Amino acid sequence: MESVTAQRSACATPVPDPSAGGDFRLSYAKILVELEEVEAAERLVGELLDERPEDLDVLSLYTKVLHIRGKLSQALACWTQIHTRSPHNENARMYLSALLSFARDPERGAGDFVALGQLQLAKKPKAQVELEEAFVLFLQRRPVEARGACDAIARKSAGRDLEQTKLALLAKAWIAEMSGELDVARQTLEEMGRARGLETDTDRILALVRVYESIGGKDELLAAVHICRFLERNFEKMSILSRLAVIYGRLGQPEQAAEYAERYLSQFRRRMHRPSMAEVVGTAARRYIPLLRLREVRTYDRAPPDDPSARERAVVAALGGAWPAARAGFAQGAEALDGKYLADLAALEGDHGAAVRLRIAAHRADPSDPLVLGALLDAAETSDEAAGYLREPGVAERARWVLEAALREAPLRAESWRHLGSLAGLCDRADERARHWLRADALAEAARRDREPVGRALAAAVYHFMGKAKGLVHQVWAGRKPAERGRGGHLDAEDILGSLTPEMTRSVRNTFVSVREYAGSKFPHLCKDVLDWSYSYKVTKEDEPSGGLSAGLPTALAFLSAILQRPIPQDMASTGLLVADAHDVLVVRRVGDAVPKVKAAAHRNLRLLLMPAENREDLLHSPQVPPQICDELVRYVGSFDEAVTLAFGEGIWTG
What we know:
This protein is of the alpha/beta class. The strands form three sheets. It has a seven-stranded mixed beta sheet with strand order 5-6-4-3-7-10-11.
């Protein structure tokens, strides 16, 4: 019987297609990401970025791939570029947020100089110092004086520095808004609109929408709708759709609210680089993606392409399980691609002899495709016809070249080494076959350990960029090493690695002790040797200090994994403050920045995000994340018991 292993490893080494346009390759890269072929996706998107460095869609997808690959420093650098180059990104609000942060932090914000490095200072612009002083007055609970300081800055810059005038007036309006003086904020922003150059300024009108929503009267909400519809027509700003959904809901217009909520959900999934059904079908009609894998791709809609070609209709039929219709459609074509899909259909229907014959014909027409070659090598284990073809003069040499080229692109792919070994066996090179298969087994085992590691947990966190919280997912590691029998069970300060604040270092040690006692109470049969090991802990992304207590839950899961030697799923992240109520009762408490953490998990293509139950209301009422995304992704936990069940499965309690 023919193996489908080659189909399972589909798209691992994309073959260059000179005729493929940029949009086609971008869609193909999205499909590669969905199929977890992220190394291949990274190479392809990197090539696109070299060709089109100004294309923000390409840069955004590249950032997603880097995030999934764990290359967080590069991902953050790309996010910075995207923000800097994106139009209408509320730079003014972010700048003012950063100034407010400086005002809150005396070490960072005080004085006329800002630290650029350990031994380097730079003098701040005078206008920045003055705005910081206004925020200091606000933090001292002197909002009237703070607004007066902003007015003075605006008067001084009026007529000679429009940007500085704008910042001062936005700061005044924001201070009024934060002080609850919404009418003052509205008046300030409406008067700004009469200044030449600020009539349609997006920072101003978005701030005005926010104030109108906060006031909440019918007239104000209708005015907010008017502004949002203007932004919808003139600017590409996804958040406007969610705002309109909320405002229409508050106005008692459920049909319009539902329409905008649905549009926002679709745009959100597109922003997360989920492919559409039309993209999947159009891409598969131009480039071979084995049907078994193609059916695994998640799309954000089910709409087929407009005016589809015969091959696209055949792909749609195959994805829908209508195999006779798909076969008839592919049979109309005379290209190698049609033959490859016909071979897939034959294999799916169990006619493996026909599948081999069709693949041989397809390989003769296109000998450079490693996917068809891999399927033939798998089939050659039981098919004399496939083995005989691969032994033909010239075929084996060409096949070896294709496999070696694939390994140069992805040297850690076990399946390519296994195929190279199979080819060597067909050519009576037994030693070479054994050597390649041994390497394939080692790589497959390493990949399995990487998918199911012990002591490695994913943590949902935030990175603060110019006052704005950006969600990201990073790793925390817990490990152990042998200690003198009965004298271990400790986590020493020198074994806490990475860049952690003193507060977080204390929290990590506290969490370790809590989890050690919890494990001894809940799983005594699994941790009898807990005192025979000493433990270690590390936080990744160590070029910047990690702080706060929201990593308590992923840290606890990592320690429990190390103590019990049970693997943690790597498609699950968590966040939550951990509190020990008793030696066997650990409670999960709320965290800040819940919304960007959910966005980070969605961006990272995770299956699950464990979130404190106390954050449920935060997400339920947030317009920034569609409720469908939360329903699909988020699981709320109030106790460590619940988190343990979700992380390790129900069997952890009975196994």
